[in-house]
Amino acid sequence: MHGRLPLESEIRRRIAVAGPMPVAEYMALCLFDHEHGYYTTRDPFGARGDFITAPEVSQMFGELIGLWMSAVWKQMGAPENVRLIELGPGRGTLMQDALRAIQIVPDFRAAIVVHLVEASPLLQAQQEAALEGAGVPMFWHPTLAEVPKGPAIVIANEFFDALPVNQAIKTDRGWHERRIEIDDSDQLAFTVAPEPIPFFQSLLPPGLREARAGAIFEWRSDNEAVEMGRRVADGRGAALVIDYGHTESGLGETFQAVGQHAFADPLTNPGNLDLTAHVDFQALMRAVEAMGVASFGPIDQSQFLRRLGIEQRAASLKAKAAHAADIDQALARLIGHDRTAMGELFKVVGFAHPSIGVPPGFEAG
Ligand code: SAH
User: Is the C-beta atom of 280 inside 6 A of ligand 1?
Assistant: First the structure.
């Protein structure tokens, strides 16, 4: 057929050969197919891209996270060597701003080796360009498992929402995996696996077992969360995860597509839309805690950034800046509570080895 995207042809070929495709497999192909995946073929960030992330809104975000990392390093007993690991660094902006801010803590800067975990070669090249001349040793890896072991501080902003999500749908006969087929009108469409997933109900959080027919439950592989927990435990360090999602596991469909700052149908235009699903923070925390790590939060991004001093930072930038209104606007975007702002939509969780105590921003009260 003319005009069909190459990735759509490949997805249709796979469905023709192997039958309806699990949602997670579809999502992984759309985002990271080596030739045609969304992240492998473009830089989606910024006002002219498809969406904008907190580090792209303002330098204040990365700066405050840099200072958070330096405080955590002191709580770790200021080890002489520490790995700063960032999962999914995008354009490299957060790390760039963080490394600039921690110039005021020279001992910490001297102890750092940066490890960036990035699956897209195109974004890796962009990160290399952005971080050239940062003045600290830096390495790239396609997965966290490949980062060398040792004392570690891990950061992940809008990483976990991009990991492939599975869906199951409740029927009278149990929970069936949701899949993607080619329907009678030759369109990609959702369908359900004929047989229920054995024992699925007993694996659900107790409150969700009585769901009515038609309910949808989403879950992800625990691999990345478990590996992150292992790094924090073995490295006697800490981790910070910032993302949108629900604080407790729940029912409902959040698998969604965004292109050019607008929602779209996730089954159209494969490879050209950003696909995400909300992070289930309860599931994430359970997986990380299982590695012997303490967890903190979730708290709203607004509360977290205020506790780190974003309002003071904004005031001092405004005193020096020609465009004070821009700084007010960025601040409102990062900590505001209306629906277009990130302050309440985004949640922050911290993880720490039990020996280091409470990471900054998560103090009680
Ligand atoms: N943290 C950045 C970018 C968020 S977008 C910011 O806040 O601006 C998600 C990032 O994670 C992209 O860099 C994407 O290529 C990367 N990514 C997503 N899934 C990944 C995976 N499984 N392994 C490695 N990198 C991944």
Answer: no
